[in-house]
Amino acid sequence: MALIEVSHLAKNFGSFHAVKDVSFHVNEGDVFGFLGPNGAGKSTTIRCLLSLISPTDGDIKFFGKSLNQNRSEVLTRVGCIIEKPDFYKYLSAQRNLEIFARISGKDITKRQIQEMIDFVGLNGREGDKVSGFSHGMKQRLGIAQTLLHNPDVIILDEPTTGLDPQGIIEVRNLILRLRDEQKKTVLLSSHQLSEIEIIANRMVIINQGRTIVEGDVHELLEKQSMNLEISVANPTVFEETIQRDFPSLTARLVYKGTYHIEMEEDIRQPLIQRLVETGCGVKAVIPKRSLEDFFIKMTEK
Amino acid sequence: MMLWKNTINELLKIATKIRSYIGIGALTLLILIVLFAMKADGKSYIGFVTASFEQTLSFNGKILNGNLIAFIIMQMLIVHVPLLISLVTGDLLSGEEASGTIRMLATKPISRSGIVLSKWIAATIYTLIMTVWLGFLSLFVAKWMFGSGDLIVLNSNGLLIIPEADLAWRFGLALIIAFLALWTVATLSLAFSAFAKNSVGPIVSTMSVIILFTIIGTLDVSVFDSIKPYMFTTHMAAWRSVFEDPYPTSAIWESVLILVAHIAVLLGITLIRFNKKDITS
Hints:
By secondary structure, chain A is of the alpha/beta class. Chain A is 36% helix and 30% strand.
């Protein structure tokens, strides 16, 4: 069942068309990657999903109901972080959560707030003013705020922006816990393509305000051309072999003795066999079919 | 229900912000300064006012009393209190925009109108508290310091002496009308707040409008005569009419209606603007 359906979404700011035609759907239980280069229209689309921005055209449905006509009901079941979570700095973490809990559409007890503070690892700091919090702590408080009312859908727009590697890992693990333990549906916009590749099962890529591709992450990656990174002991022999026996391939030197090869067909087996036979001194063969390559290819079109 | 819950939130935010106490603190300080000045040099100040009447009138009793001080304070501060009010109310929407919390607020299941109305109710309560505080300090503290007595009012018709027994309801009604005027200012700054991304703009804009309208109101140019009766600044000092004898009932009602109409129109503008606003911050 699709929990989020976006059909032909468009948004103009005056004469500027920020979003031209974006469509995708997020199924129940998905961790859905929402990708696109800067200026592709990701933030505008997400803001439309959360009724921060009124779309110029198109349709948004949550749980099969129009967002426009069921805004309050929908937002009761949605939790979100848009870019960075901002709080009332002059209030404590607990008071901030109390404020957002009061207007979450659900009855949330102080005990539940404390449990959420514990869940994100801010216990002991709940009485401190947010003005003294680091970016990572604010991000954790933002996640607590997002989960406080036990939403069915969680929308995270760049949740790891500005975080240190430890913070990025914490957020990633948290999303995985939400997926595996609580069976939440997560829409995740991120520039961290490796993160999306690890945790998302479906994704959409948008560019210049339009949907480029949507589907299962692994199926999409399977369809794209196979790249290899090959390290050899004899580069001269290697280059001669490629030119002579595989003229359709392009071998790009990445580093001393290490080449990047892109192939339209999967000819790994005959290629490696030939390289071994000619005495290139093959030291390593690393398959390179990453989301990063796929993303670049899709957005360069 | 959601409106009520968010009003509690808004009152909580106002109660925990330092800027909310700047207004109350400044108001308290100003009144205390006036009270101190009157205690120290009030007789010569009153003597200066009554000097022109002393050839024809004989003043007996205590002219410099708490009621007169309260009247003087209200006249002096009604110009400054709008700034102190807009310091808080001009920040209500724009402050959320500047701090980014507007995103968090607007993605909750409360309607945009609910957000505006709860902030407006909170602004109204804050304005009421400021007015009551102004009344308390100027009336009760002044009476405690200077004692009670008849009130001498100098107006365009000359000198009016209002007996002490006839003053309580007049001060009460004057404060209600003053509250209406300040409520209009609070709603005006909230309206500006819906158009701004930080609180400086709404505060400056509110004071600019008050200054501009006040200047237009005092200009003796016929071209403005048709609009003067409808400018809210014309009616901001309507509370003074209560201290006339007989007091002009119809003029007071007209002022009340114009101030209420301003509040309704400004609130409507705020609601329309905020409902249509794309939150891109």
